[in-house]
């Protein structure tokens, strides 16, 4: 994974409210992509100030080219604003489309 301080190919800001009586939640982020089967996209979650990396997935798509999914699950995540980043670690040719699912 590249340095989170660098600008990723895409970044999304998401607010996470307090979870009931607690100020922590469990979050699962799934990145699914299709297109160029040699591409390798990664997903990560950092705080809005870009100071803390909470989770990342750098599944090596080259080892399993038919599995174009990345998933991270973070427990006890405090309420606040976060950046979900998508990084094209490897995109040799062709178009790649992706979807993000936040649970």
Helix and strand topology:
Elements: E1 10-16, E2 24-35, E3 40-47, E4 53-57, E5 69-78, E6 80-90, E7 96-102
Antiparallel strand pairs: 1-6, 2-5, 2-7, 3-4, 3-6
Q: Can you describe this structure in just a few lines?
A:
The chain is an all-beta fold and 103 residues long. The chain has strands at 10-16, 24-35, 40-47, 53-57, 69-78, 80-90, 96-102. The chain has one domain: Sandwich (Jelly Rolls).
Descriptive account of the structure:
- The protein has one domain (10-102): Jelly Rolls.
- Helices cover 0% and strands 58% of the residues.
- The chain is built from no helices and seven strands.
- Strands 1-6-3-4 form a four-stranded antiparallel sheet, with no helix packed on it. It has a three-stranded antiparallel sheet with strand order 5-2-7, with no helix packed on it.
- A hairpin with a 5-residue loop joins strand 3 and strand 4 (53-57).
By CATH, the topology is Jelly Rolls
Look at the helices and sheets and give the structural class: mainly beta
Q: Radius of gyration from the CA trace?
A: 14 Å
| Strand line-up across the major sheet | 1-6-3-4
- Shape call: elongated
């Amino acid at each position: 994974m590249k340095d989170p301080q660098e600008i990723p190919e895409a970044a999304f800001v998401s607010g996470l409210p307090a979870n009931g009586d607690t100020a922590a939640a469990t979050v699962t982020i799934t990145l699914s992509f299709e297109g160029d089967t040699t591409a390798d996209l990664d997903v990560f979650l950092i705080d809005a100030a870009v100071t803390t990396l909470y989770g990342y997935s750098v599944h090596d798509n080259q080892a399993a080219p038919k599995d174009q999914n990345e998933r991270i699950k973070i427990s006890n995540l405090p309420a606040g604003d976060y950046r979900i980043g998508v990084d094209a670690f490897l995109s040799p040719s062709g178009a790649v489309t992706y979807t993000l699912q936040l649970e």
